[in-house]
Amino acid sequence: ETGVTQTPRHLVMGMTNKKSLKCEQHLGHNAMYWYKQSAKKPLELMFVYSLEERVENNSVPSRFSPECPNSSHLFLHLHTLQPEDSALYLCASSQGRDITGELFFGEGSRLTVL
Amino acid sequence: DAKTTQPPSMDCAEGRAANLPCNHSTISGNEYVYWYRQIHSQGPQYIIHGLKNNETNEMASLIITEDRKSSTLILPHATLRDTAVYYCIVRVLIIMPGGGADGLTFGKGTHLIIQP
Known about the structure:
Shape of chain A: globular
Shape of chain B: globular
Largest sheet of chain B: 5 strands, mixed
Number of strands of chain B: 9
Oligomer: heterodimer
Strand order of the largest sheet of chain B: 1-9-8-3-4
Number of helices of chain A: 0
Structural class of chain B: mainly beta
Largest sheet of chain A: 7 strands, mixed
Largest interface: A-B, 37 and 26 residues
Strand content of chain B: 35-45%
Number of strands of chain A: 11
Strand content of chain A: over 45%
Radius of gyration of chain B: 14 Å
Radius of gyration of chain A: 13 Å
Order of helices and strands of chain B: EEEEEEEEE
């Protein structure tokens, strides 16, 4: 149990569907992140939120829409995805003033786009 | 952030020490060395980090050369559960205005396989 919970763990969707991935952290952290991990590729940082404010967006297509309603919850809304968007999506969080800079990751949501 | 170079894969016998090298010859003075690992189909897990001095915790030891251009992660008594991809990351630690560290940039890492 890492303190970062992601749901669903597995998701299959068609290209015309709309779905959402959810992340919840129980660690009292201030920052949350979305990463994408495609097969045989390094993890790619997608979005960073600090106290619910988006501070980084690494040129992610608009079909991925993040939402951070509070410091404990992070969503990734998905619509009109492509098969190449199939990947493991990982959520992470980090503490407010912890100088270690450690990121705590969830187990990930495995997405398959048909 | 400085670039790192790691071997793509390594083998180690169970019970022996696993020594994972990382080259970061362009590291600058304010950049830390971090190590994470990712067991198959799980999220990455923090192992250890350091700036100049060698560090040790319950999981591993980190040895940083005096010129800081390379480092070695040591798992003192490797077990089968240590089979994973190990990532060496060099970065300046930036705390964002609202709190929390900036994001990490991962490379391809080293796939460590512990052999029974």
